[in-house]
What we know:
Two copies of one chain form a homodimer.
Chain A: H1 5-12, H2 16-23, H3 30-43, H4 49-56, E1 61-66, H5 72-87, E2 91-96, H6 101-113, E3 118-121, H7 132-136, E4 141-144, E5 154-159, H8 161-173, E6 179-184, H9 189-204, E7 213-216, H10 220-233, E8 239-242, H11 245-258, E9 267-271, E10 285-288, H12 291-308, E11 313-317, E12 319-321
Parallel strand pairs in A: 1-2, 1-3, 3-4, 4-5, 5-11, 6-7, 6-8, 8-9, 9-10
Antiparallel strand pairs in A: 10-12
The structure holds a DNA duplex.
Amino acid sequence: MPATIKDLARETGLSVATISAYINGEKVREVNREKIENAIAKLGYIRNDYARSLKMRSSKTIGVVVPDMHTKITMHILAEVQNELRNFGYGTIICDSRMDESLEQETFRFMLSKMVDGFIVLPVSGDPAAVDILREKGKPVLVVNSMKERKDVSHIMIRNMCAYGEALLDMIKKGRRHIALIYAGALVTTAKERIDIYRDVLKDAGLYNEKYIFRTEYTIKGGYEALNKALEMYPEIDAFLVSNFEMSLGALTALNQYRENWQKDISFVGIDLEEDAGIFKIRPSSVNRPIKNIGRETARLIVDAVENGRLRDKYLECEYVRGDTL
Amino acid sequence: MPATIKDLARETGLSVATISAYINGEKVREVNREKIENAIAKLGYIRNDYARSLKMRSSKTIGVVVPDMHTKITMHILAEVQNELRNFGYGTIICDSRMDESLEQETFRFMLSKMVDGFIVLPVSGDPAAVDILREKGKPVLVVNSMKERKDVSHIMIRNMCAYGEALLDMIKKGRRHIALIYAGALVTTAKERIDIYRDVLKDAGLYNEKYIFRTEYTIKGGYEALNKALEMYPEIDAFLVSNFEMSLGALTALNQYRENWQKDISFVGIDLEEDAGIFKIRPSSVNRPIKNIGRETARLIVDAVENGRLRDKYLECEYVRGDTL
DNA sequence: GTGAAAGCGCTAACAA
DNA sequence: TTGTTAGCGCTTTCAC
C-alpha cells in the first residue's frame, strides 16, 4: 500500500494541509521542511496524481492521437512532442488510431475518461467533425496538418506548397514533360494540398495527366513497387515526386536498379532525405520538412491553448534542396 | 463541466448506486435500463477514470518505457503492444527515456503517480537495480531483452544466438576470415549476447579480432559510415554482421557503392530486412526478428502478471535467412 | 433491484 | 504558518 499524505502527517505530527502546501511549493518552517522531507524519503511517498487530478479537474497530461506510428516523421514528432511536453511539466498519452475512424473516436473517449487537459490530433480523415466530441467537452485541441476550416482549434501546418511548387517548376524547367506523383495515405489537408499544387502547377504548364498520380503505402516497399509499376505502365514518365520518407527510399532504390545513369533522363525529388542524403552516390533532390521543429512547436501550441486558452495557427515551411537528381 | 453519475441520477430519478451498478454490468430493471441509457446519451456521460481508479486502486493502464522511439523495431513493438493491450481493455502510457538513466527513473515515478497497473520496460542500461522502485511499489514488471538475472519480473527475450551463430558459421564456411560486427546502443542482455556469440564463434574458429567490432548509431547514416570506416581502416574485412534494421540499410548502401559485385568477396548479413528484401537487386541475407509477435506476446505477459500475478519468461527465436550476400 | 452513506488521496477555503 | 473540514466522482457494503 503506497504512502499517502495522511501517512506523512502521522509521521511528522503535522496536518495534511501543511504537507500538501509544502508539496505544492508553499513555504513551511525549516524544521517542518526537514521533517517532511525525511518522512517522504522514509515512506517512499509518491503523490497520487489521480486523487490530485480528480480534485483539480486537470491531469497535466496531453493526449496525442496519430493515425500510424510507423513512419519516420511520426516517430520523430512523437519523440519530440513528448520530450518538450515533459519540459513544460506535462505527461503524454500516445495512441495509434490505426487509420480507423471509429477507433479514433474510441481513443478520444479513452483519453477523455483519463481527463487529459488537451489533445494533439493527426486525424485519420480530413472530416472536421471528428473532433466534435473533444470540443463539446471543452478540451483544447491542436490539429496537425488538417481541418483548416475549423476555427475552434489550433492548427499546425507544414506548408508544402512553396517547396513542392519549386520542385515541380524545376523539373519543368529541366524539360520534363511526364511528371508523376507518388503519394500515400489519407487525404488530410496538407496531403490534399500536395495533390492540388501538383495539379495546379502541371495544368498551368499544360502537362497535367491524372494517370501519373500513384497511390501506394507509406513504406519502403510501397515506394519501390509504385515506382516500378509507374515505369512499367508509362515508360514515358521522366520525373517523380515522392511524398514520404520511406517511399522515397524505396523509389530511389528502384530507380538505381532501373537503369545506370537514370538521372540523365529522369528527375527525382523525394522527401526528408536531407539527414541521410550523404549516403547516396547520387545526391537526391529533396523537399525537407522541419522535422525537429514540428514537435517543439506542437508542444508549445497545445500548452498555450491549455494554460491560456489561446488558439493559434502556426505554419512551418519546407525547403526544397536541389541535388543531383533534379 | 462533464456529466457525472450524480447528474445521471438526477436525470433518471434513480440513485447513484444503481447507475454505477448498471454501468459495471449489474442487472437493473428494463425500464431503468432505458432511462439510464437515455440519460447517458442526452448528457454525453463519460466515466471519469480518475475517480474510478482512485477508488479501485487500479487504472487499467500499462506503462511502457523505451530508451528510444526512433527505430523501426521499437515503433513496431509499441504499435502492436498498444493495440493488443486495448483488446484486453487496457490503456497504454508510452514514455521515451532517451537513453538516460535518470530520466528513466523520473519516468517511472511519473507513471507510478499515474497508478499504472504494470510496467513494460526496455531498460536503458542492463543494471537490474533500475526497476527496484517499481518492485518496491509492488508493481508487476515485464522486462524486454534484459535483466535475465532478476527473478521477480517477467522477461521476454529475443534469442539471437542461434540465428547469429548460424549466420557466422555460414560466413566461415564460405571462407571468410575477417568478419566484422557493426552494432549500436546500450549493452542490455541481448545486445551483450550478440557480442558474446560473435566472440565465441569466432574464437572457436581462431578468427576473433577485437578491432573488427564497430559501435555506431542506430541510424541509416550510422550503418553507412561505420561500414565505410571499417573498410577504410581494415580493407581485409570480408564479411559484415549488422545488428539493426536502419544500420543494415545504410551498410548495404555503402557496400553497393563500394564496388560492383562486392558480394563475390564480401559477405553481408543484416537484420529485419525480410519485409523489404524484395527491393534489393541483391537479395541480402538477414537475421529476422519476430517483429509481429514481440508486441503481442509482450502485452499478454504483462496482463497475465497484472491480473493473475503470474511471472513468466518467454523466448522468441530469430530466423536466419540466407540471401545472395551470404 | 435499489438507495444511503462512507471513503479512496488530494486540494483549498476558512479559521485559528 | 498551520489545522479543520468539505468535497472532487466513483464504488461498495449493508439495509430495505
